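Collaborator request, handled under Task 6.
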Amino acid sequence: MNLSSRLIQRMLSLPSPLTRDLVIERDLRVPMRDGAVLLADRWAPRSGGDGLPTALVRIPYGRVGMGAAQMVRPLAERGYQVLVQSTRGTFGSGGAFDPMRCEREDGLDTLDWVIEQPWFGESMVLFGGSYLGFVQWAVAGRLPAQVKAMIPYVSESALTLEFLRRDGFSLETTFNWGIMVANQERRWAMPRQLLEARGVRRALHTLPLNRADIAAMGRHSDYFQDCLAHDADSPYWAVLDHSQRVAELTVPVSSVGGWYDIFLPGQLRDHRTLQAAGRQSRLTVGPWSHISLNAGATAVGEALDFGLAHARDEKPSDRAPVRLFVMGEDAWRDFPSWPPPGYAPRRFHLHPAGALAADVPGESAPDGYRYDPADPTPAVGGVRMAIGVKAGRVDNTELEARPDVLTYTTATLEQDVEVIGEVGAEIWFRSSLPYADVFVRLCDVDDKGRSSNVCDGLTGLTGADETSCATVRLWPTAYRFKRGHRIRLQVSSGAFPRYNRNPGTGEPRATAATLHAADQWVFHDPAHPSAVILPVRQAN
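Structure tokens returned to the collaborator:
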């Protein structure tokens, strides 16, 4: 155990623990209102554990193994006792696993149970990332007074709904997660996931999509089938949308996210809601993707500073409400709010001959390309969650050499351009088919000509065979384009398999089996001033 403790300490760059001598009580039985019993393990110092602040971690991925230990052990060694509970229907807990749909009731019942235990002291902190952060938001508005703080990371209050947009279905994440949880209780599940990752990626090409899970594992994933059957605005998902509860939260929140995290837009929305409601909330966003050791390490640090201080009725370390890693500058900076003040929207217009500039373009013919869903424009880096796939900033040279990707680039910058906030684009577009997607990516071209992605987004169009303005919301960012670099915008019609390929037929995404290639046009003239809108720091 000491070896594991020391390894985790080194991995997470943590200070020395108060103790490495822990005791673990296994399989505590936590009753739910409907008669189901969920299992939990309690980690505590062997001496003096009773009465310490309790960190509650509710997890669907199992209570043992390195993944759980690197969250639980650092807290139990440094001032907490930790209760880690398997959510309904997972790893010995009763009931059926119905992802995200039972977490409010089960979470509230668990809180009631914890505060009645003889080892419980006077305070509790909720902790965890991704699904483990969502279960914290699920109980907002009904927290007992003993809960003193929440620390959700790479997570948000309406988990997965961004993925299920009718105009931008996130295929890769929904499919991979559905396959993962369907197989996670097999023997040697993690090594098998690594060995089978290539086959899972191949299965994403299956048509129709409602057979892709069978291609990957020989049976259906209920979660993936639900994602195919119900768009984000379907009443089916209303039970897992807790965004309306965020303003009701009264406990302090410290959230940690990443610029390339799948949940970033929702996480920033939650922080803004707390901000507007006058709640105590602090936010940290680093240059990370969803599966990031650094995001987890930062969150553990927040639990040991922010969380423990509030649990003890003390003041946490003094810092600004918002701390952002500004990429390009590669430095941490503090701000009073999100989005930060002092950044104004600035339009960079598309011009003929692949130019990008502040002035409105003159009369010019549109640029064209052919999109073929049988050879879809690939997803390269960026916002990804898949085993064996690189996320975050990558070299886009090969992608930009494809004939189905247009690029528009500024002249060499004479001074730094700092962009922090929400990024959007307005692309005047027409297709030869009524159904098409518009994918837009912002890139930084360095002084050697290497193009690296900063942020991106996709929107789907109906009536695309008539010229219209596609409004694309890109991921938020904090980035400094350095003097001597250039700003580049890519425009294409896909990023597969991050997003499902648009077949061009208008068929339901679950059953579409026919693929039609399309000719696409991007306009840039006085009547159709396509542009990317960047929040640029104003001169002092």
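The cover message to the collaborator said: "The longest helix spans residues 293-311. The chain has three domains: 2-157+241-319, 167-229, 343-537. Please let us know whether this matches your experimental observations."
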